[in-house]
Every structure is written in structure tokens, then in C-alpha cells.
UniProtKB/TrEMBL annotation:
Annotated protein name in UniProt: Elp3/MiaA/NifB-like radical SAM core domain-containing protein
InterPro entries with a match to the protein in the record: rSAM_sf (IPR058240)
Amino acid sequence: MVIVPLNATGSPFIMVDNELRLGAEVVGTVHRIDADEAVGGYFRNGGKAATLNPNARSRCTGCAFCPNTLEAAADPRLSEERQLSELLDAMREQHPRGDLSELQEVTVSTGCFEHESAALSHLERLRRALSDHGIGARIGLLTSVLRSDNSFRKLATDVAPFVLRLTIECFTRRNLLLKASKADLTPAEIPDVLCRAQGHGLDTSFTYICGLDHLTDLRLGLAPLAQYVTEFPNFQVYQAHNAIMAGLRAPAASEIEYYLQARMEIERIFGDTNLRPQAWEGYRPLWYFSFGGERLVP
């Protein structure tokens, strides 16, 4: 599953029926084309992983590069344990084999929690709802508000297994590009947050958008973080959905060479780890078939 912006007039790629073409050459076949609309939850990785959108994606505003602010979404906000339970009941009916006990990972994607206490309360409710449905999957949250040792202790006690996916996104222009709850986490503080989360027995990772920083800033920002993550980070290609968003790109980030160079920089930084990108995890991925010369698919 990948997400692409439509009506990119400068793109050399075109869609003809279900064929993706580069000029006249067919380079791919597209199946199940759908609008990127927020739903309560959906499955990935053949039904072994699920993504939940429990807190109304349309309520989350502030990051200048995010396409969510362009949408008129009628998406859910699940604030009670009963509503989470009802969502899981509905998802069981949609599961490929009708068995949610197969789930290994449940990711809370559109948390939009502005404070630690709200995020913790929701995660505790989610863990109880999962347990009531016989689901022992690891919970992951994309967030930047969980930073304190107190929250990490509560996660380890009441929510684990848990992976903290810190929403870093960029290292420069953070006050311009990010909403306040993300921007007030400084690049200098990021390694410490990940390290302390690990110290409490939690898994760790982060999200980063390639195309917002100069390549030098990308390299300097990422290099100290490899030792503090237990999962390969979620690196996404920046997509501009209008002219204003295009103006937010770093210099040279409108050219494919930027992303090829970014990919090589990241491969050098993470090459000595045993962490590798998973094909099913990325919506706007940098990697498809290989990582630093290693095959990712059979």
C-alpha cells in the first residue's frame, strides 16, 4: 500500500487504467485504488497488523506539510472503551480469517493527543479492549507528547508490549513546519527521550520525512539516533499536494537525486544495525526491493 498525490502536473508518471507508466513504458500495475480517507481501522501485513485512527484525524491541524488539513473528513473520534470494543468487533468481521488473535501489532496512527495524560489514558483503554478480545499484540503510538519517565513507567506496567514511534519529521525549521506539541521537542532532546524509553523496557522508533531538511542536516540529525531505536524508523518521501506545500521542500528536494542520496545516507547510518525496512510498513517509502545492496523481497 502506497499513497500518492493526484494531479501532480510536473510528474513524468501517468496512470492509464490500472497501469503506471513512465512515458510510454509500463513500470507497474495498480490494484484497489481508493481515496486516502480516514476510517476507524484497517489491516496490513496480511492481517497480522492493524492501524487504528481513534481520535479524529481531521482534528489534527498545525503541521504545514500535512495533507490532512486539506481534507473534509468525517472521521471517528473514539473516546470510550466501549467504542474501541465496538470497533474491534467490526474489524473482526473484516479480518481475512475473522481472527483478531493473529494481530502482532496495533498502531495508533492519528492519536492527535496534545498532552501525555490524554495519550496514556487512551492507550490504557485500548490495552483493556484488546485484552477483552483476546488480542496480545504490541501497541504502537505515533506521538511526540510521551516523554517523561513517569509515562514510560506507566506504559511498561499497564500497556506493554509497546513501541514508541517518536514523530520527529524534520530537524530544521521545526517552529515553522510543525505544530507546537511536536516543535517543542528539540533535536538535542530526541536521543535522550528514546534512550529513556528503552531504559524502561519499551521498543523505540521514529518517523521522519525526507525532503524537508538539507541532506547535511538529515545526516547530522539521524546519525546519533541509530543506537537508540529497536525498530527501523518510518522514513517517508515528502509529497507536496499544492504549490504552497511544494515551497516547503528543502533545496534540491524536488529532484529524484536528492532522495537517492538520502537513501544512501540512511543506509550508511543504519547499515551496521540489524534493522531493515519492511515493505508493508511504509506508505511513501524510500525502499522497495533492496537496502544497501541487500534484497528486501524474495
